[in-house]
Amino acid sequence: MTTDPMPAPAWPARKPRLLLVDDQPVHLQVLYRTLAADHQLFMATSGEQALRVAREQLPDLILLDVVMPGQDGFAVLQQLRADRETAGIPVMFVTAHSGEDIETRCLEAGAVDFVPKPINPSVVRARVRTHLTLKFQSDLLRSLAFVDGLTGVANRRQFDERLATEWARAQRLGSALSLILVDVDHFKAYNDHYGHQAGDEALRRVAAALREQARRGTDLVARYGGEEFACLLPDTDLADARHLAEHMLEAVRLLAIPHRTGGASGVLSASFGVATRAGPAQPGWQPAALLGAADAQLYEAKRRGRAQVCAAALGDTAQD
Ligand SMILES: Nc1nc2c(ncn2[C@@H]2O[C@H](COP(=O)(O)OP(=O)(O)OP(=O)(O)O)[C@@H](O)[C@H]2O)c(=O)[nH]1
Predict the structure, then answer these.
(1) What's the pLDDT tens digit per position in 219-239?
(2) pLDDT (tens digit per residue) in 271-304
(3) Residue 3: inside a domain, yes or no?
(4) Is residue 8, in this structure, part of any structural domain at all?
(5) Is residue 223 domain-shared with residue 175, that is, in the same domain?
(6) Which residues form the GGDEF domain (predicted)?
(7) pTM: predicted TM-score of the whole model, two decimal places
(8) Is 274 inside any structural domain?
(9) Is the CB of residue 302 below 6 angstroms from any atom belonging to ligand 1?
(10) Which of 161, 166, 227, 246 is catalytic?
(11) Does the annotation count 227 as an active-site position?
(12) Which residue puts its alpha carbon closest to atom 23 of ligand 1?
């Protein structure tokens, strides 16, 4: 009896999710028996169903039959690659047609591997394991590339990408998109008085407090740079964004981080600039305009004495 090696560190705590695709139920049953113990399995008996399940479940790996009525495996793979959501899911072909030509064609089409039928269960398990390990390692690297190392919130790169996609979505649907820029007050004085390490710890706590408030799945809290954070709020109008910023202001105050050189309250505070794009697109509107508007509101909040929220709609010069 062989024992499986320990999972690599990149493996998630949950069971890996596999999609098995074959038009013949008997072949699906064999794969099911081979893989059921260690994986969460989804099954499809046609190309069309496979695409639907792949989009709904976003499996970690797909085992795909080549020859199927309707859309064959090559057509399915092409469509998976064309969809941003499913493009990164690795696909292993499983087929009764063997030979160098078909194997080469499968790999050239973008499959990560090729397994002949009838399958050898232990070989399939080993290959599945190898491709899952590679998939989880690349997921981990990707997530690290988008996370701020100090605070654990999204980094500037992730923010820039999300701003571009959410802006395009808001343009298309005519939905609201709000942005809150947050800047910690008198932070230079904080570092000077308490030291850089205490400054880092304060930034971590502020980031966690902001994230605690932005609870919707589509909200994004990011470290924009230095002691500045940005919160992107899709489908959120100006009144709601302002309301959220007021809660964030209070949450930072409630951290009660002593700051004896930072203003009258004696605790660390932050200033908030809110801007919203609402309604149909106006000529010349760009994501940079939203950033500029939020930054102008942040500047105003600082000018008015810090530890407060200023907000305005994009294209609206009035402030409140
Ligand atoms: N500890 C720590 N400090 C940082 C980090 N990033 C930026 N800072 C510091 O944040 C301070 C920001 O200073 P300023 O831009 O002058 O702003 P401020 O002192 O907060 O003043 P106001 O924004 O006007 O209230 C600088 O001293 C930076 O060194 C970081 O990652 N860790």
Answers:
(1) 999 999 999 999 999 999 999
(2) 999 999 997 777 778 899 999 999 999 999 999 9
(3) no
(4) no
(5) yes
(6) 175-314
(7) 0.72
(8) yes
(9) yes
(10) 227
(11) yes
(12) 185
